[in-house]
Specification:
Layout: E1 2-6, H1 13-25, E2 35-39, H2 45-52, E3 59-62, H3 79-84, E4 89-92, H4 95-100, H5 105-117, E5 121-126, H6 130-134, H7 138-155, E6 163-167, H8 181-197, E7 207-210, H9 218-222, E8 229-232, H10 239-249
Parallel strand pairs: 1-2, 1-8, 2-3, 3-4, 4-5, 5-6, 6-7, 7-8
Helix pairs in contact: 1-2, 5-7, 7-8
Bound molecules: 2-phosphoglycolic acid.
């Protein structure tokens, strides 16, 4: 299973140092078959590289990655910059990027293609709003978000081998309103169908669930065969809590 921590814009330098140091010491992050990933703010890439590279097996990455090589894009960060700090991963299309930075499906497709071409593993986030869910449009919204990326990757002949999908219903993020097991299982099944009917069928891309995952609800979510891990926000900010969630994921 892949258990990914999305710190968002949280933790001071001291807190980040403590978290990464403690996490590097916890056995669970090195367990066979388990992959922990830390999506840290860009200013902590150097710290993550220094602490985690000697710890082995633990991944780290950026919470975004621009679609261009370099240039006049104030505030943005490139794939080469991520790679320069040992990042193996990029989180792309998070709903907060879609909402607050107005990222479109097309832009997210370009970012995903560029990051994959550069050799990064991409966690591509998809998710419907509460209004979409209430209107019964959830499957169509997710297909639309996913298809735009998959079609573009096929057009660009970019392999999907390093693509991971995170299903994150917007209404479940940071709200404590975790999706029901049936909602998760149904949507993961739908995403699997979309992936299987895409041009590059056959790759067994993991599908993570994200949205208010914590130590209390983790076990039942991880018991679903369709769940390949989790993208965790709030519950990832404490090293011990995050590690215990990783331990729970291994007990399925
Ligand atoms: P949450 O965030 O666990 O705090 O709901 C998840 C995410 O946004 O990735």
């Amino acid at each position: 299973m892949i258990i990914a921590a999305n710190w968002k814009m949280n933790l001071s330098r001291e807190q980040a140092l403590h978290h990464l140091t403690r996490s590097s010491q916890l056995d669970i992050h090195h367990a066979p078959g388990h992959q922990s990933v830390f999506f840290v703010p860009a200013c902590y890439f150097g710290m993550a590289e220094e602490i985690l590279s000697s710890a082995g097996a633990i991944g780290w990455g950026g919470q975004d990655c621009h679609q261009d090589e370099a240039g006049a894009f104030t505030g943005d960060i490139s794939a080469d910059m991520l790679l320069g700090f040992g990042c193996g991963w990029a989180l792309i299309g998070h709903s907060e990027r879609r909402q607050y930075h107005f990222e479109t499906d097309r832009q997210i497709a370009h970012k995903t293609a560029h990051a994959l071409k550069k050799g990064l593993r991409v966690v591509l986030c998809v998710g419907e709003s509460l209004a979409d869910r209430q209107a019964g449009n959830n499957d169509a919204v997710i297909s639309g978000q996913l298809d735009t990326v998959l079609v573009y990757l096929a057009e660009q002949s970019v392999s999907t081998a390093n693509l991971v999908i995170a299903y994150e219903p917007v209404w479940a993020i940071g709200t404590g309103n975790v999706a029901s097991l049936a909602q998760i299982d149904d949507m993961h099944g739908h995403i699997r169908d979309v992936l299987d009917s895409a041009a590059q069928a056959g790759t067994d891309n993991p599908i993570l669930y994200g949205g208010s995952v914590n130590e209390t609800n983790g076990a039942e979510i991880f018991s679903l065969g369709s769940v390949g891990g989790a993208l965790v926000g709030g519950a990832s900010l404490d090293a011990e809590k995050f590690a215990s969630l990783c331990t729970i994921s291994q007990q399925k």
